[in-house]
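Lab channel / #folding
Pinned by the channel admin:
"Please post every new chain as: sequence first, then the structure tokens as a reply. Keep commentary short and put observations after the output so the thread stays searchable."

First post following the new format, from NK:
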Amino acid sequence: MAATGTLSQAAGTAAVAASDVFTGAAFTASAVATTTLTVTGGNPQIANLDALTVGGTTYKFVTVLAAANDVLVGPSDTQSLLNLKAAINGAPGGSGVAYGIGTVANTNVNAGTATATTLVISANINGVGNGSNTGNSVASTLELALDTWRLLEPL
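Reply from TO:
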């Protein structure tokens, strides 16, 4: 038998408006897969040519923006993480300033809360095992000039 109600899902949220015909209970929302990028070891640690690949896109930290997906190394790790957040989300006003011209918003993940030393990255689609762009199947890797970053709670 079928569910009743309206199912809708925005990126990074779960569809929760329907109910089960058999029991009348509301569906349980699924959790969004997240990872936390953490910079450790003092400030600044993010360096020229450090790179992060997440959701199929590689972001390279540079001191001079030259290409799409370049991210400007800031004067502090906090600013570098904010620049990375802007690049992942394709934030307005960031092109050519915080990230390279031609960078577009990542279609598989979004960057959320940033602190002085952390950035939370979440999958845009909930779930597990529905392909490489869904929830826990989204890959993330780091390539470091200095071994001072770590990923927690892998996507």
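NK: Residues 31-152 form one domain.
TO: also worth noting, Residues 1-9, 14-20, 145-155 have pLDDT under 50 and may be disordered.
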